[in-house]
Amino acid sequence: MTRAAAILLVGLPLLARAQSPPAQPGLSGIGARADSATSAVITWTTDQAADAEVDYGLSTAYGGSASAIGPPAESHSVVLSGLAAGALYHYRVKSRNAGGLLSVSGDFTFTAVVPPPLAPAPAVAAPLVLIMNPPQGAFVSGVVTISANATSGAGVAAVQFLLDGLDLAPPLASAPYTFSWNTAFVADGGHGLAAVARDAAGRAATSPIVPVTVDNTPPAISEVSAAAVSASGAVILWKTNERSNSQVEYGPTPAYGQSTPLNASLVVNRGVPLTGLAPDTLYYYRVKSRDAAGLLSVSGDNILTTTGASGGVSAAAGAAATQGDSAAKAPQKTLTPALADGINDRAVFGPEAREVSIVDLHGRRVFHETSAGPAIVWNCRDGSGSVVPSGVYIASIVTRDSRRLYQSFTVAK
After folding, report:
1. CA separation (Å) from 13 to 4, 8, 19?
2. Among 158, 183, 214, where does a domain finish?
3. Quick one: which of 138, 190, 192 has its CA closest to 163?
4. 5 assigned to some structural domain
5. Same domain, yes or no: 402 and 356
6. Strands of 177-182's sheet in order across
7. How many domains does the chain fold into?
8. Residue 230's domain spans which residues?
9. What does the pLDDT look like over 35-68, one tens digit per residue?
10. Is the pTM of this model over 0.85?
11. At 265, which CATH number?
């Protein structure tokens, strides 16, 4: 490294030098299982949610490919069909994450099953049954339609749906072979669907198992907060207990009116930036997350206040502003008008308060007063003279030097 390059590297900010490029999915546990003379199942895992694809063929040129159906996952299973019995196949697995980063394995091989000698052909074709819906690896919730196709040379007598090897519904004697499955009656998590077809000759056949994931619980939202609040923006942080997408609604009233673009990445920790905010303004916001099964959770109301437009002030000016704030705000934070003890029954704003408006967390104004006198007093009553309900209230204070301050109160009745 040249001396100039070393100087340039040292001059970089620590954060820039510490960052590393986004990681590609890590591939592990790659294996093949030849289920029949014409099919095989390729399985592997990734260290992050990603899609699944397999290239395969009779040489390292491959020529064929198959993909898994369903949302990105960490455990993958792809079925290869139409294989030549007893042939040696080459294959490789590929996974791409939500950021578009692709990982490709090296070359692996397996040998297709050599079928046993054919028995004498039956007089009529045996039953055949396949699950058509839901697809393999699907996330399901609520009521889901299960459907199957079944055929037999002797005629299909009945089709029985199975869940985890147990009867799911009464046998169906005629097509269409469909059933409305209420997934609310089973535990969230992985399950296997199958169907058994029986024909008039007494023969039975079972379909391949279709793995699905039941999810009837919306994501739980927690730790909602606002960080990096400035005069024109903020970052809204929250967590969920399962992977889900992200969006924030915000605005100067509880009606919001604005929202961030939907971030479709399924994560459990996120930070969504708000930009273009007005300085020194109270904003309401709530967060929304929808999981892979489509279940939506919405947080309650939250508030933040942007900083003033002027970023830097002198120490003297800052001290004066702090002193002016104290002379405008009320010293009381918790108000208890119902105790009738004469203590903390009202909020008394200082002589620097020229105008005071008080709203509840739904944006409804319960008090407003402008005064040239020594103080403005709110006695915890609304415009009709009734004591307001218990809860949190926000005071917007205009000082005599035309600055705007915000103060919250808790009314306990």
Report:
1. 16, 10, 10
2. 214
3. 192
4. no
5. yes
6. 128-133, 143-151, 177-182
7. 4
8. 221-305
9. 888 999 999 999 999 999 999 999 999 999 999 8
10. no
11. 2.60.40.10
